């Protein structure tokens, strides 16, 4: 949404909706705000503010976030010899898509 920057140096990445973090992204002078769920009016607001935004869909960002955190916890468990128990979400299909 909005005009893409000529050069991208800093990206703010928020899984899920994360709209409330757009002010932080702008304050930290991010070139791109990458998130997962922007409504029409919020998209208009971000465009007006000049923050180039990419909506990657809520499910896609949540699914990838779970995988990243799972990988990180596995790494911590292995390196620190900890025993962190966790159970990642198992929603394998986007609930917003047709069956």
Biggest sheet statistics: 3 strands, parallel
Shape: globular
Runs in which pLDDT lies below 50 for 5 or more consecutive residues are none
Proportion of beta-strand residues = 5-15%
Biggest sheet strand order reads 1-2-3
Gyration radius, in Å: 16 Å
Q: Count the helices. How many?
A: 3
Cα-to-Cα separation, first versus last residue: 29 Å
List how many beta strands DSSP finds: 3
- Listing every helix as H and every strand as E from the N terminus to the C terminus, the arrangement reads EHEHEH
Structural class computed from helices and strand pairing: alpha/beta
Which percent range fits the helix content? 25-40%
User: pLDDT average, as an integer?
Assistant: 82
Explain what you see:
With 99 residues, the chain is α/β, with parallel strands linked by helices. It is 39% helix and 11% strand. The chain has 3 helices and 3 strands. It has helices at 22-27, 40-49, 58-80; strands at 11-13, 32-35, 52-55. A 3-stranded parallel sheet has the order 1-2-3. It is globular. The model has no long low-confidence stretch (mean pLDDT 82).
Concise structural overview:
The chain has three helices and three strands; from the N terminus they run E-H-E-H-E-H.
Give the key terms.
99 residues, 3 strands, three-stranded parallel beta sheet, 3 helices, alpha/beta, single chain
What is the strand and helix layout of this fold?
Elements: E1 11-13, H1 22-27, E2 32-35, H2 40-49, E3 52-55, H3 58-80
Parallel strand pairs: 1-2, 2-3
């Amino acid at each position: 949404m909005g005009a893409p920057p000529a050069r991208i140096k800093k990206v703010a990445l928020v899984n899920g909706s994360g709209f409330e973090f757009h002010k932080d992204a702008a304050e930290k002078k991010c070139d791109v705000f990458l998130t997962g769920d922007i409504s029409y009016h919020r998209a208009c607001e971000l465009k007006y503010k000049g923050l180039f935004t990419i909506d990657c869909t809520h499910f896609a960002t949540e699914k990838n976030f779970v995988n990243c955190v799972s990988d990180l916890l596995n790494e911590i468990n292995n390196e620190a010899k900890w025993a962190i128990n966790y159970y990642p979400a198992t929603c394998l299909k986007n609930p917003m898509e047709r069956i």
